[in-house]
Amino acid sequence: xxxxKVNVVTPxxxxxxxxxxxxxxxxxxxxxxxLAGHIPMVAPLKIGAVQLKKDxxxxxxxxxxxxxxxxxxxxxxxxxxxxxxxKIDYDRALRAKERAEKRLxxxxxxxxxxxxxxxxxxxxxxxxxxxxxxx
Length: 135
Prior knowledge:
This protein has 135 residues and is of the alpha+beta class. The protein is elongated and about 55 Å long. Strands 1, 2, 3, 4, 5, 6, 7 and 8 form an 8-stranded mixed beta sheet that branches. β6 and β7 (74-79) form a beta hairpin. Helix content is 28%, strand content 48%. It starts with a strand and ends with a helix. It is built from 2 helices and 8 strands, in the order ββββββββαα.
């Protein structure tokens, strides 16, 4: 099967670069599956996993929003932040989830930014689910 080059980049620099057979990502418009030769497009990404498939194996990268740029021979993920599954600190993600849940559900405080807490919860749950997929 043909491969396509994938680059995952954040404001802090490159996170991942490889040649894969398929890229699966969650865009605002829905889930996208991208193969070599895909038509050019740009799509905003949701908080979610970017799945990279090659040789019947998958690698997962947690992305926290951003832009997906597709060209026939290359996919570039410009993410606000991104972490490869193997580098995610699972315990830290669990603590972040607990803090966000506490802010959302336990504190009925008018000073709590619920939108920010909700985004923190989504990011933590994304990181946790990616680590759990790895095993």
